[in-house]
Amino acid sequence: MPAIVLIGAQWGDEGKGKATDLLGSRVDYVVKFNGGNNAGHTVVVGDEKYALHLLPSGILSPGVTPVIANGVVVDVEVLFDELDALSARGVDVSRLLVSANAHVITEYHRTIDKVTERFLGKKQIGTTGRGIGPTYADKINRVGIRIQDLFDENILRQKVEGALEQKNHLLVKVYNRRAIAVNEVVDDLLGYADRLRPMVADTGLVLNQALDDGRIVLFEGGQATMLDVDHGTYPFVTSSNATSGGAATGSGVAPNRFDRVIAVVKAYTTRVGAGPFPTELFDESGEFLRTAGFEFGTTTGRPRRTGWYDAPIARYAARINGVTDFVLTKLDVLTGLEKIPVCVAYDVDGTRFDEVPVNQTDFHHAVPIYEELPGWDEDITGARTFEDLPATARAYVEALEGMSGSRMSAIGVGPARDAIVVRHDLLG
User: Fold this and answer.
1) What's the predicted TM-score (pTM) here?
2) Is residue 41 annotated as a catalytic residue, yes or no?
3) In 121-260, which ranges are continuous DSSP H helix?
């Protein structure tokens, strides 16, 4: 049975939660393999809207085992706040598994994230300030705290002492902040240990055994392709691998076990934070997309930057991730537009680029080359088959499919849970 990777094809916020929810009743495990509580998934169930940050979207699907795997960085306070909020709304959260090898976000990671970003001034990356980057930095520097360390006070204390010995010098002497006490951090983390213990497992073993037993496992990436630390618009990226390759290292499941890669792509483009964005709009069209699409961050509430669909980015995502299927979301937001521009290539100082430039300077200076496609006025939120869509909406989807490097297998036509058109079985 398949192992399926679900990732974002743009700069995030494409609607991965909706795609996960579409598959939720057919999968047995949903695995978060990267990132932390710096990404948000909004899932609408009936009249209820759920905003998830750290938890896998599959936690809302009855019978699914949600897994926070080793590639994730975990703010334990946020974890329990989210679990308590869902429990209060009647959601069963008892099946959650957390990797013993996942790294822990501490107080000093959050503090360093915020003061470093402020220190950068106009050169800010645009982080969420939630400690994600500093936690991954400690992981790579081999001074990180892992979930399993919370169950051994001596090891936990040694690791916190080692980390703060350097970080307090930085906070006090460079950023003019107070030093953080070792006991303050240790006592805080130990306070979560008893409640956390029943959730912790060797999740790599659990997932491989599940695949051996014929279970369907969905690997859900946080952020998106263009925010991947290796393949995104560096340095304006996240601190983990948000592409399909990250599913293997972030979960302990080998690459040859993955059968399908589903990429979620919005019918236009958005971005949060700093960095290049060739199709960004600064006029009434950009405001139309922001308002009609309610483009405000699930995690931060920040207004998203908006722009037209960028086909070279979709092709890049298809190539980098090995995309087998695209899920196109928010097609309904474009309703009412007479013409819809689509970026088909870039102009960089008089040279045409049909693919994403590898050179960062070129990409910063890329000017989109547009083709205009006819729009539609009809309300499409009730469409449930491709034939239900207006002819021009179908033509728009088919045009994007031809430009983007893989088939458009499902199309989101509204915010409701069932507002989706399925053209091809995502598991077939």
Assistant:
1) 0.92
2) yes
3) 132-140, 153-169, 182-190, 193-196, 203-212, 245-249
